[in-house]
Amino acid sequence: MKRRQLIVAGAAALVAPSIARAQGKFPDRPIRFVIPFAPAGPTDIIGRMAAEKLSAILGQQVIVDNKAGAAGSIGAVDVKNAKPDGYTLLCAPSSTHAINPTAFVKPAYDAVKDFTPIASICVNPLVLVARMDMPDTVMGLVELMKKNPGKYSYGSSGAGSIINLAGEYFKREVGGMDVEHIPYKGSAPALQDMMAGQTAWMFETFSTTLQLHKAGKVRILAYAYSKRAPVAPEIPTMIEAGVKGYEAYTFNLILGPANVPQPVVDVLDQAARRVMKDPATIKFLEDIAAVPTTDTTPQLTAKFINDEIAKWAPVIRAAGVRIE
After folding, report:
1. In angstroms, rounded to a whole number, what is the distance separating the alpha carbons of residues 105 and 55?
2. What is the distance between the alpha carbons of residues 149 and 168, in angstroms, rounded to a whole number?
3. Residue 74, Cβ density class (10 Å: 0-12 exposed, 13-18 middle, ≥19 buried)
4. I need a labelling partner for 97 at 20 to 30 A (CA). Which of 46, 89, 239, 255 fits?
5. Which residues of the chain carry a pLDDT beneath 50?
6. Around Cβ 197, how many Cβ atoms within 10 Å?
7. How many whole angstroms separate alpha carbon 205 and alpha carbon 154?
8. 49 CB contacts (<8 Å, ≥6 apart)?
9. In the prediction, which pLDDT does 24 show?
């Protein structure tokens, strides 16, 4: 309830003057905001917040439409095929615009050419988490893994997931480790098996593991982002822990179909910038361990997509991830 009150209060503060009234043109009817995953997950929570804030600024309702399936591809294709008039948008996560373009044998869309970049909402850094009998530092864990080739395993939420790829990226960046990957159907069973001693470590979202860490059920060894998290500043970054340049995160972007007219992009861009400068938005995201993108622009969003695809493509290929 408190979180919803925060969103509503923040949205109310942004109502006047609305861009729609100021422009007198787009938008003049509701906008459909496709979230390519089921309700109540991280992408849905962040997407709904953004939709409510944008509604207040644009003066038209931004309606969330959950289109789950095929690692986000069903929702992405829905937006790809929509009329490019700004009335259908995608809340794009890392699966649709960093992983699927390389992981799918026959991608259903081109992550760059088939979409119009509009805005970045946030990134959601992962953490390296280990069971309690493992070493309490990243380099200590690496040393143990290398001294015992083939003895240990790590878990993930599924083959080809960002959790899996973060593990493979980690192994590569520390010079290689003989550690078996155990895929699960979701993060919850992967975490449960790790705590039960079936696997040694895994990557996971910060918000999922922070309370377990505080309760002494798991140990977060490092935060996979360039700066420490405000909600837990005592936890070092992966870079500080000895893995040079290592960052791994999910993300949330706002995209339209290809060829959205520039005047429409400009309106949406202005609205998104106001949302991402709003203190209530920033607090909401930081409270769920996300990092707000306060300097969002369509150009930076386009560059971000290209950079993420280029970053993960070699990791995906080296891991042999191929989704039919």
Report:
1. 38
2. 15
3. middle
4. 239
5. 1-13, 15-23
6. 10
7. 15
8. 7, 281, 284, 285
9. 54
Query: pTM to 2 decimals?
Result: 0.88
From the CB of residue 28, how many other CB atoms can be counted at a distance below 10 Å? 11
Count CB neighbours of 287 within 10 A: 14
Q: Which pLDDT belongs to residue 207?
A: 85
CA–CA distance, 100 with 291 (Å, rounded to integer): 23
Q: Cα torsion for 282, 287, 291, 296, to the nearest 10°?
A: -20
**Which tens digit of pLDDT belongs to each residue from 257-298?**
999 999 999 999 999 999 999 999 999 999 888 999 999 999
Taking a C-beta distance cutoff of 8 angstroms, is the pair 315, 172 a contact?
A: yes
* Three state DSSP letters for the chain: CHHHHHHHHHHHHCCCCCHHHHHCCCCCCCEEEEECCCCCCHHHHHHHHHHHHHHHHHCCCEEEEECCCHHHHHHHHHHHCCCCCCCEEEEEEHHHHHHHHHHECCCCCCCCCCEEEEEEEEEEEEEEEECCCCCCCHHHHHHHHHHCCCCCEEEECCCCCHHHHHHHHHHHHCCCCCCEEEECCCHHHHHHHHHCCCCCEEEEEHHHHHHHHHCCCCEEEEECCCCCCCCCCCCCECCCCCCCCCCCEEEEEEEEECCCCHHHHHHHHHHHHHHHHCHHHHHHHHHCCCEECCCCCHHHHHHHHHHHHHHHHHHHHHHCCCEC
Taking alpha carbons only, the member of 207, 199, 255, 84 closest to residue 223 is 207
The pair of three-digit structure tokens given for residue 57, joined into one six-digit string? 């600024």
Amino acid symbol at 138:
V
Q: Residue 22's pLDDT is what?
A: 44
The C-alpha atoms of residue 184 and residue 164 are separated, in whole angstroms, by 10
Amino acid at 157: S
